């Protein structure tokens, strides 16, 4: 089996999480400067077997698309051109940032560590991936 890679896209930073080869465990991989995201994904998929990209789908409380959806769609269009062989699925990402922050509190991270936005993005990507794995 190949890995599943989850992407919590942001205009500045993007959190990335990945499964093991058996698609059982979701782990935070890294946070990447969004300008370097496509080159990072091309390099990663050249060395690791990835069968699916999960991309967070931010929605408002009334289920309409959030403002960042325009940027995410542009990214998806580019991703489809650059790495067309890997399927893309969208996953509702409402509340993942809040849940990530709560996870950091629950795990005992100090206030200074909880202000690390890159870590929040990585944990958010992991939560997106975990929710997908649970739903399978």
From TrEMBL:
Role this protein plays: Could be a nuclease involved in processing of the 5'-end of pre-16S rRNA.
InterPro entries per UniProt: RNaseH-like_sf, YqgF, YqgF/RNaseH-like_dom, YqgF/RNaseH-like_dom_sf
Gene Ontology molecular function: hydrolase activity, acting on ester bonds; nuclease activity
The organism's place on the tree of life at top rank: Bacteria
UniProt keyword list: Cytoplasm, Hydrolase, Nuclease, Ribosome biogenesis
YqgF/RNase H-like domain sequence ranges: 2-100
Alphabetized Gene3D superfamilies for the sequence: YqgF/RNase H-like domain (3.30.420.140)
Keyword Kinase: no
Membrane spanning stretches: none
GO CC terms: cytosol
Cellular localisation: Cytoplasm
Protein's name in the database: Putative pre-16S rRNA nuclease
Enzyme class: hydrolase
EC id: 3.1.-.-
Keyword match Nuclease: yes
GO BP term, pick one: rRNA 5'-end processing
């Amino acid at each position: 089996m190949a890995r599943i890679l989850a992407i919590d896209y942001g205009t500045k930073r993007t959190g990335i999480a990945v499964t093991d080869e058996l698609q059982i465990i979701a782990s935070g991989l890294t946070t990447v400067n969004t300008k370097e995201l496509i080159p990072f994904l091309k390099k990663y998929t050249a060395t690791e077997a990835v069968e699916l990209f999960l991309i967070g789908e931010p929605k408002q409380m009334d289920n309409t698309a959030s403002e960042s959806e325009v940027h995410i769609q542009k990214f998806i269009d580019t991703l489809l051109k650059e790495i067309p062989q890997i399927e893309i699925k969208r996953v509702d990402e409402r509340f993942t940032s809040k849940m990530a922050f709560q996870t950091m509190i629950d795990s005992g991270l100090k206030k200074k560590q909880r202000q690390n936005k890159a870590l929040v993005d990585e944990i958010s990507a992991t939560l997106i991936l975990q929710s997908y794995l649970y739903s399978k």
